[in-house]
């Protein structure tokens, strides 16, 4: 019988960030603020002779995930991995980090590596940074909350608050994170746009994020239309970094967004990645 382990990791919506360039992946990352969300990635890992990754979303499967394949190779294991998520990929919901954290959490148990949560996160962070799929998402998604990261990497100082109210998001399509992180010009605008303080609560997070989005020059025309509709209704909203999407706070947000795309109701997560089951 083939042994299997299943784990889940929450995703993370980044509201604002600034790249921090270190001498190695562990000291490279970002500072910034975001929300760790109840939705994320579930990963099922089975022993196998050769590695294969199946990425399933809404009943549709695609093959391959360079960051996850890299992380398995780095740990010296071959496995059959299936990741499942409800939110769209590449849309600023931190799913690459969630896929890595969920998969490595399951791998750690399946292969009896005995890695600490810190070590699992360090491998996930390295894969993210090297593949330019994220900078601060692994650090954020190690636990829950509205997070403010004041240093780069997984050991940096992070404050977390746990508001009860939900937030709402719509996605208008993907924006490959690597395309933005590889642009020096975009990175310079982002650095200059950074709001130099942590959010007090969820509405404050939305406002600080919006100021950043405007100054960064990243707002695309479709995102602008959704932000305009939110502004007209007095709903605090900003852009999912880095994706073509919008998140919004407050009671009227769901109604305003519902005419503009599929609305995801998201709750602030209370915990990071965890093992769901191990069989047999
Ligand atoms: N659910 C997932 N399962 C496996 N790999 C994933 C998943 N989500 C993202 N990835 C990997 O990350 C890449 C996209 O990274 P990125 O643009 O940062 O997406 P996101 O904004 O969702 O984190 C994908 O091409 C894929 O290699
Ligand atoms: C904004 C981003 C660089 C990418 O986030 P995503 O597109 O969700 O992978 C994030 O990792 C951050 O450092 O804040």
Automatic annotation (TrEMBL):
One of its GO terms (molecular function) is kinase activity. It comes from the Archaea. It catalyses: (R)-pantoate + ATP = (R)-4-phosphopantoate + ADP + H(+). InterPro entries: GHMP_kinase_N_dom (IPR006204), Panto_kinase (IPR054946), PoK (IPR012043), Ribosomal_Su5_D2-typ_SF (IPR020568), Ribsml_uS5_D2-typ_fold_subgr (IPR014721). Signal peptide: none annotated. The lineage of its organism: Archaea, Methanobacteriati, Methanobacteriota, Stenosarchaea group, Methanomicrobia. This is Pantoate kinase. Belongs to the GHMP kinase family. PoK subfamily.
